[in-house]
Amino acid sequence: MSCEEVARAVTIKDASAPLEATFIPELGMIGSSLRHEGEELFGQLGGVAGYEQRGATFALPLLHPWANRLREWGYSLAGQSVTLDRTSPVVKGDPPTGRPIHGLLAASPHWQVVDSAGDHLTAELDFGAVPEYMAAFPFAHRVRYSAALANSALTIALTVIPLGDTAVPIAFGFHPYLTLPGSDRRGWQLELPVARQALLDEQLLPTGEGVEIAPGELDGPFGDRTFDTSFDRLYTTDGEAAGGSAGQATGGGGEAVFALADERRRVEVAFGDAYPVSQVYAAKASDFICYEPMTAPVDPFVAGERLPFAAPGTEFTAEFQIRVSKQ
Fold this sequence. Notes:
The structure is a single chain. By secondary structure, the chain is mainly beta. The chain has one domain: Distorted Sandwich (Beta-galactosidase, Chain A, domain 5). The protein has four helices and 28 strands. The radius of gyration is 19 Å and the shape is globular.
């Protein structure tokens, strides 16, 4: 990072392990780095410059108020009819499909740090105070982002707090680009606790049909596999094949634990019960894989299935962990 980028960054450290994470609050609260024993575990791709200038994702971006793609450049939801402005600087189009993708907060400058110490960081964004955001998602709310390091794990909690008398649809997610430095990805061992693959059309949108997957069926060496795949039911550690429903937890208190490992290190992404869906992404010949926790399936506003809401006077919090251990 440049001197300017370093000045804007906030680094937190795990007092019990050689693990540290860096965030840039005024650049979308991007988690720009996760280092274990000095080695980078987040794929850097275009880095800070690409994210700031083009919204090109890298490392650990937040996708809010929707993750992945929407079917149309408009939607009707909870009494609101919205037409997305294709020229808006906060609405991102997906070049391969021409669909709006990954929400509105890429590289957002509107985050404010409210608490920061050696092992944790909390920032908030008043979504309702930004006209461009409200034009595309007219549900006033505040977002609280908390990151903490302890016991060789990075815990990320995101909370949506309605500000008005209207319930807020919940369809956010995260897009962690994970890598294992010093080894060939073809030999990485993958664990994908996925119970059903949602079939997608040529625009990478759900058809409504799916294929059941047995426990462990997709586990094994990465090899030459690629993914841009939606999984709308996950296996949790309590043995459930859970998919959740509107506002419902993933399962009976268990986690869905995705993993990648080589001979030196194991990295797990543990989805809490508010994340019943995952997109898995790994491009051809890339040196990363993304296990993406999502609170709702792809195309949530148009399809409208399994879409949670945060009611006025309540809060909705979803949490996941990235855990690192030596082999």
